[in-house]
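Milestone M4 deliverable, item 7.
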Amino acid sequence: MTFDELNLAPAILKAVHETGYETPTPIQAQAIPAVLAGHDLLAGAQTGTGKTAAFTLPMLHRLSQSAAPKNKFGGKGIRALVLTPTRELAAQVEESVREYGKYLDINSTVVFGGVGMNPQIDRVKRGVDILVATPGRLLDLQQQGFLDLSTVQVLVLDEADRMLDMGFIHDVKKVLALVPREKQSLLFSATFSDEIRDLANTLLKNPQSIQVTPSN
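Output delivered:
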């Protein structure tokens, strides 16, 4: 199988080819069609399996097919929210979004703690299609009234097991309460504890399950 067979928008394929990728990894080959079809997804995948592109590419495709709603500040409403456990991963994911989406009229930004809040506030208020965030800073911005999550259509929890290990479960649940019930939800985790399965059960509707690493 090649990327050309995955029915992605030509503008996305152009960006993929420019990165030098021709053949999707196993997680990409299974996840991309499921996400394009609108399914919720429960995916077992470790770092290094190509999972970021597995959700970024179909997410960009789906957003490119429709117009952005407005947020309460008059800018573009957030249509996709990606939660990650660490600022390093958040920055990497947002970089991938920009790389694969560079020929689309879709913009993104990243918010995480440990840096000044004001540039992040300005960026979010101006409007972004895709927001990549760590849970703590996301909730800080929301509680101060700078963030409107009512327009989210796709929610991704990346490395959910690490989020739980780092004590973010309550923050994650707070975020889930702020996004619309009707949305597409994708959960990626290297391991599946009872807590992860509980989280998946509350978040996902009839998900497709994909496991590309040995179950542990």
